[in-house]
Amino acid sequence: MKYNRNLISALRWLACLVLVAGLCGCRDGRPTRVPVSGRVLVDGEPLGQGHVRFVPEGARPSGGILDTDGRFALTCYDGQDGAVLGTHRVEVSASEIVGGGIRWHAPKKYNRFATSGLEVEIDGPTDDLELNLTWDGGRPFTEPTEAEW
């Protein structure tokens, strides 16, 4: 049986394209992310409300909501796609508006990554990351809003 050289050549190119696409995977054009989850503790006790935000240099931050056991799973773009690889500055915010003030459930300094002093290196998937915060002698408090000052 005689085969057309053009057809054989086209099939070879098609096979190469399929192979290359398979090796590259279905990329979404976004940086590589890995699953990251963990727990937030304040003076050894789970922080049962609030959220975390991981802020890398030059990439999109990831965030997660704390459950009643202080556990979180990070998401960067959608679902629970984790965080980009690298060093992240971290903020933990746990406050609520109550009767004319803000009730802080975690120390206020952790509310901003610039003041938290928390830094985490993400070098692969992890499900046991632990963030340990401390009141450093303080405790939850209610701060009056500006209208009450």
Condensed summary:
The protein has helices at residues 5-24, 113-116, and strands at 33-34, 36-42, 45-46, 51-56, 62-65, 71-73, 83-84, 86-93, 95-98, 101-104, 118-122, 126-133, 141-144. The chain is of the alpha+beta class and 149 residues long.
Q: Mean of residue pLDDT?
A: 85
Radius of gyration, whole Å: 24 Å
- As residue ranges, the low-confidence spans are 17-26
What's the helix count?
A: 2
- Structural class per helix/strand content? alpha+beta
- Taken from the alpha-carbon principal axes, the silhouette is elongated
Known CATH architecture: Sandwich
CATH class group: Mainly Beta
CATH fold group: Immunoglobulin-like
Query: Strand count, sense and closure of the main sheet?
Result: 4 strands, mixed
How far the N terminus sits from the C terminus, by CA atoms, comes to: 93 Å
Number of strands: 13
- SSE string, helix = H, strand = E? HEEEEEEEEEEHEEE
Assign the CATH superfamily.
Immunoglobulins
Count of domain modules? 1
Helix content: 10-25%
Q: Strand-residue fraction?
A: 35-45%
How does this model look, in words?
The protein has one domain (33-148): Immunoglobulins (Immunoglobulin-like, Sandwich). Helix content is 16%, strand content 40%. It has two helices and 13 strands. It has helices at residues 5-24, 113-116, and strands spanning 33-34, 36-42, 45-46, 51-56, 62-65, 71-73, 83-84, 86-93, 95-98, 101-104, 118-122, 126-133, 141-144. Strands 2, 3, 6 and 12 form a four-stranded mixed β-sheet that branches. Strands 5-4-8-11 form a four-stranded antiparallel β-sheet. The protein is elongated. The N and C termini lie far apart (93 Å).
